[in-house]
Amino acid sequence: MATSSNYLYWLIVGCEAAFWLVLVLALAARYFLRHEPLSRFLLLSLPAVDLLLLTFTTIDLRGGTTATFAHGLATAYVGFTVAFGGLAVRWADVRFAHRFAGGLPPVRRPTRGWQALRTELQLWLRSIVAWIITLALLSALIAFVGHEERTRELEQWFRIAFGSVFVWFVLGPVWNVLFMSRKGPTTIRPAKADEIDALIELAATTFHETYSGTDAVGEITDYVATHFTPRAFADILADSSMTLLVAESGKRLVGYLQLKVSAPPPCVSGPVPIELSRLYLRRDTIGTGLGADLMRATFAEARRRGRETLWLVVYSGNDKARDFYRRFGLVDVGLKDFKFGSKTYADPVMAAPVRAD
Q: What is the CB neighbour count within 10 angstroms for residue 244?
C-alpha cells in the first residue's frame, strides 16, 4: 500500500511537470516555429496527462490496493486541472506572446475594488466546479471498485471538499470585502525626472490595455516603441508648455494625464485653449473613481495655467471614453484626422469651458 502511494505521489508530480512541459512546447510551436497545427495538437493533448493519472489510480484500486490519501489527491488533481487548466494555458500564452512575440503585456490582477472582488468570486466558483468534478470521479471510482472497506479512505475527500469551499470563500471573497475592497489613498502629483522608466512602463501598459483588439498588435507595439521612450518623456518634462501629472497608489503609478498648450483645430472656438492630449489609467483601477480624480486634476491644472477652454481628441471607437468625457461637460465639436500605423482615423474632437470647481 505504501509503495503504490509513493508511486502516486511521484506520478502526480510527474503529471504536473508534463503538463507544463507540453504547454511550453505548444507555445514554442506557436510563436517560434509559427506552426499553429502542431501547437493546437499539443494543447489538445494536455488532457491525456490527466487521463494517464486517472487510469493508473483506477487500475491500482481495481487491482486490490486499499485506497489511501494519495488516491484521493490524484483524483482531486484531475478535477482541479480540468477546472483551472484553461486559466493556466491563457496565463502562459499571454506571457509567452508578450516576451517572445511582441504581444500585449500581461494585465496585473486587480487587488482592490469591485473588479478584485469579482475575480475572487470567479475563482471561488471555479473551485466549486473543480470539487464537483473531483467528487463525481471519486463516486465513480468507489462504485467501480465495489469494495466498501478498501475505498473507505476516499470518503474523507467529501468532507475535505466542503471544508475547502468554505475556507476558499473566507480567504477569497470575504477577505477581499473586509480588507482589500477599500480604495487606497491615491496621490496625483507632477511626474518626476527620476521616474522615467516607471512612466514608460505605465504609458506602454495602459496604451496596450486601452487599444488591444482595435488594431494589429504590431502597429500598437510600433507606436509604443516610437512614442514612449526615455527621450520623449524627458522632452515632455522639460517643455514648459506641457504638464504631466501621475496618479500614485502604494508607490505604484496607476494613471497619468498630459496637458499641452497647442494650436487647436478650427472646430475649437473657445478662448485660451489647452489640450488634454493623454489620460490613461490601469485597467485594474477602472471603476474606482480614479478617472474622475484625474479629470478634476485636469481642470485644476488648466485653471492654474489660466486656460479657459479644454479640448481633446478621442478615438472614435472608444464609446466609453466619450461617455466619460461627456460627464464632465465636454461635447463633440468636430473631427480631426489621426494617423495610426497604416490607417487614418477621423476622430471626434471634444471641448468644454474649463470648469470653476
A: 19
In the structure grid, which three cell numbers stand for residue 128, read together? 466549486
Per-residue model confidence (pLDDT) at position 317 = 85
Calpha distance 103→152 (Å, rounded): 50
- Strand 252-260 with 242-249, pairing: antiparallel
pLDDT band at 215 (very low <50, low <70, confident <90, very high): low
User: Residue 356 carries which DSSP code?
Assistant: -
Average pLDDT rounded to a whole number, residues 3-30: 91
CB 188 within 8 A of CB 246: yes
Sheet holding 186-190, edge to edge: 186-190, 242-249, 252-260, 273-281, 309-313, 343-353, 331-340
Average pLDDT over residues 8-35: 94
When mean pLDDT is compared across 278-282, 316-320, 338-342, the lowest value belongs to 338-342
Q: How far apart are CA 278 and CA 164, in angstroms?
A: 46
- For residue 108, the model assigns a pLDDT of 66
Cell of 254: 496607476
Least confident range from 126-130, 135-139, 183-187, 252-256: namely: 183-187
> What per-residue confidence (pLDDT) applies to 13?
95
Asked if 118 contacts 178 with a C-beta cutoff of 8 angstroms, the reply is: no
CA–centroid distance for 328 within its chain = 28
Query: Is 173 strand, coil or helix?
Result: helix
Q: How far apart are CA 155 and CA 160, in angstroms?
A: 9
Pairing of strands 273-281, 309-313: parallel
Would you list the DSSP string of 185-236?
PEEEEE--GGGHHHHHHHHHHHHHHHHBTTB-HHHHHHHHHHHSSHHHHHHH
CA distance 305 to 308: 9
- Within the chain, strands assigned E span 186-190, 242-249, 252-260, 273-281, 309-313, 331-340, 343-353
Say if residues 105 and 98 touch (Cβ distance below 8 Å).
Answer: yes
